[in-house]
Write a structure and sequence with these properties.
Blueprint (H helix, E strand, L loop, with lengths): L14 H20 L2 H17 L1 H4 L5 H28 L13 H8 L3 H12 L4 H8 L3 H21 L1
Helix pairs in contact: 1-2, 1-4, 2-4, 5-8, 6-8, 7-8
């Protein structure tokens, strides 16, 4: 492991001085490494922010800019890895969205106009065919609230469909 403390370590009067001298070169190095300018900008900012938090220690390192670069690179690769895991989960067959059921366009538009609370009850009761009790439990509401929301929703749907 490289010794980060050195007798020849450049001394900076303040973090501001260090930032002025090294923020651009660290960003450029990260941009070349990561081949993504936006990610490199974020990584450089993250590295600098962490250097500021630990400036009393980082300022004594033989190459504080190298430390910032490494921190930024580690942060960026971790972020990319996390993003890839999330994306692969979203597109994997077991996580693929089920096909949208075929619904008459007029009915679909009428359901879309319902308030979210009523729409949720209609979908759970009629699309998933859940009981009032199961719907109430899922939505954390009383069974009587399921009945009243469903009644209001069906009334609104009837009016909307008659108008169409």
């Amino acid at each position: 492991m490289v010794n980060e403390e050195s007798i020849d370590a450049p001394q900076f009067a303040s973090f501001s001085e260090f930032y002025s001298a090294h923020s651009r070169p660290v960003f450029e190095a990260l941009a070349l490494t990561l081949r993504d300018e936006e990610l490199a900008r974020d990584a450089a900012a993250e590295g600098m922010a962490r250097a500021l938090q630990r400036w009393s220690d980082v300022s004594t390192y033989g190459n504080p800019a190298g430390w910032v670069y490494r921190v930024g690179l580690n942060w960026a690769t971790s972020r990319v890895r996390k993003f890839r895991r999330e994306v692969s989960r979203e597109v994997s067959p077991e996580h693929a969205a089920p096909p949208t059921p075929e619904i008459h366009p007029g009915l679909e538009a009428a359901i879309a106009e319902l308030p979210v609370e009523q729409r949720a009850v209609v979908v759970l009761r009629y699309h998933l065919d859940w009981s009032e009790a199961s719907t109430a439990e899922a939505l954390q509401i009383a069974p009587g609230t399921v009945k009243s929301r469903l009644s209001r929703a069906l009334s609104r749907l009837a009016v909307a469909l008659d108008e169409r």
